[in-house]
UniProtKB/TrEMBL annotation:
Molecular-function GO term, any one: kinase activity
Pfam families in UniProt: AA_kinase
Entries under SUPFAM superfamilies matching the protein: Carbamate kinase-like (SSF53633)
Transmembrane residue ranges: none
Family from the record: Belongs to the carbamate kinase family.
Record NCBIfam families: PRK12352.1
Organism per entry: Collinsella ureilytica
Domain Aspartate/glutamate/uridylate kinase per the UniProt entry, residue ranges: 10-300
Higher taxonomy: Bacteria, Bacillati, Actinomycetota, Coriobacteriia, Coriobacteriales
UniProtKB keywords: Kinase, Transferase
Name used for this protein in its record: Carbamate kinase
Length: 320
């Protein structure tokens, strides 16, 4: 990464929900390894802001409540509440992972998670076209069985990895807690915000100035992009399970890409090279960020190669 002399870069790092593992133990391990790379960025003089996905986790939380409802009658939990719980669960592990690493190096630490709401348009067409995969992977047979007994649930195939439930994923319009996030940044906190894309809310016109949750999961790449613009970031890292964005993904003709202009990336997205609800939103978010201001770059790479990606040795770079 090239950096103008004397000026720190402000970097938003988005960690993919699917790349965070499937259990609390796996998540702690992956977050710990990533914290090491994140602290490397700080030591190079950059400022970082962290966001993360929640697809597997928000589905796991909602499924656990559904199961407990069946067996012991606990209440069912709506998606916004599950999203809020996932922000707390993942933010807590990030605070611990970053805290441990900061304490080891500096004997002090300042990291805080902001439970973040993001305003959406209640008329967004995404509410009638679910695209965001959440929860575990199923076989096609299992998915069809669940859909037959729960007609309100939609499942789809996810990038050759199995079938998953999909929910509405509206466009994020406004970060409600943006002032708190900027205030923490000004006070030199490492901020974890907009987790799981942010809790989707719409304006509550019966209670002026208030919001209410709406059943959806915002894509964290799009939420992270909005966060990066609001924080005046220079670089957006989208860290996931693969090292590169590819064309002909998952076929013998797969070609990994190292650098793309926003125009090239958009053309490939329009041609359907990227998985819907997986790689496509990352590329769209990268294009939006790269075009938002001259000199802005988005890098998509692997969470388990975070240090190499941050050093410019791995990943796909999308430039304006
Ligand atoms: N063209 C592509 N290039 C690379 N990966 C792709 C492509 N299309 C689909 N994918 C899939 O997208 C996944 C990343 O999306 P996802 O799992 O939703 O990310 P996250 O880590 O943010 O949860 C990759 O692990 C890969 O399986
Ligand atoms: N909310 C969200 O985009 O989660 P993933 O990163 O798990 O897809």
């Amino acid at each position: 990464m090239t950096k103008p002399m004397g000026k720190p870069d402000r970097i938003v790092v988005a960690l993919g929900g699917n790349a965070l593992g499937n259990t609390p133990e796996e998540q702690i391990e992956k977050v710990g390894a990533t914290a090491h790379a994140l602290l490397g960025l700080i030591e190079q003089g950059n400022e970082i802001i962290i966001t993360h996905g929640n697809g597997p986790q928000v589905g796991m939380i909602q499924n656990a409540f559904a199961e407990a409802h069946e067996t012991i009658g606990t209440p069912l939990m709506d998606l916004p509440e599950c999203g809020a719980m996932s922000q707390g669960y993942i933010g807590y592990h990030l605070q611990q992972g970053i805290g441990r690493e900061m304490h080891r190096r500096y004997k002090r630490w300042h990291a805080a998670t902001v439970i973040t709401q993001i305003e959406c348009d209640p008329e967004d067409p995404a509410f009638s076209d679910p695209t965001k995969p959440i929860g575990p992977f199923y076989s096609e047979e299992q998915a069809r069985e669940i859909m037959a007994s729960n007609p309100e649930m939609v499942f789809t195939e996810d990038s050759g990895r199995g079938w998953r439930r999909v929910v509405a994923s509206p466009e994020p319009k406004k970060i409600v807690e943006v002032a708190s996030i900027l205030n923490l940044l000004d006070n030199e906190f490492i901020v974890i915000a907009c987790g799981g894309g942010g809790i989707p809310v719409v304006r509550d016109y019966e209670n002026k100035g208030c919001y209410r949750g709406i059943a959806a999961v915002i894509d964290k790449d799009m939420g992270g992009e909005l966060l990066a613009e609001d924080c005046e970031a220079d670089v957006l890292f989208l860290l996931t399970a693969v090292e590169h964005v590819a064309i002909n993904f998952g076929t013998p003709d797969q070609v990994d890409l190292e650098e793309l202009t926003a125009d090239e990336a958009e053309r490939l997205a329009d041609e359907g090279h990227f998985g819907k609800g997986s790689m496509e939103p990352k590329v769209r978010a990268a294009v939006k960020f790269a075009r938002s201001r001259k000199g802005r770059t988005c890098i998509i790479g692997a969470l388990d190669k975070a240090s190499e990606t941050m050093a410019g040795l791995s990943g796909t770079r999308i430039i304006g």
